[in-house]
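Lab manual, section 2.4: Encoding a predicted structure.

Procedure: take the sequence of the chain (119 residues), apply the prediction step described in section 2.3, and record the output as structure tokens. A sample record is shown.
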Amino acid sequence: QVQLVESGGGLVQAGDSLRLSCAASGRTVSIGTMAWFRQAPGKEREFVATINWSGSSTYYADSVKGRFTISRDNAKNTMYLQMNSLKPEDTALYYCAARLYGKSEYDYWGQGTQVTVSS
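Recorded output:
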């Protein structure tokens, strides 16, 4: 089993920055790709960014490309999402997710951390 705990959310103004963290515990040696997703009120959960185990490959949703940066520190079992130039439309509950090596689905999810961007 893998446990994921997000932190770093908050209330900020448009144009501000935030850094989210996702701490993993449990069978962390089995974790491969990790990702961030978000869900705004009344909307479905959407993909934000993903990163492979080594950090050498990342991929972003068009809506955040150039503003958000995903990274991970495997020694600390932690993944990050640096969010710059935040916009009100970035307001959402942000979740981290992990999938094990050889798996195609994200089997493990955190509880989410709220990000609210005021205009």
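Check your result against the sample. The chain has no helices and eleven strands.
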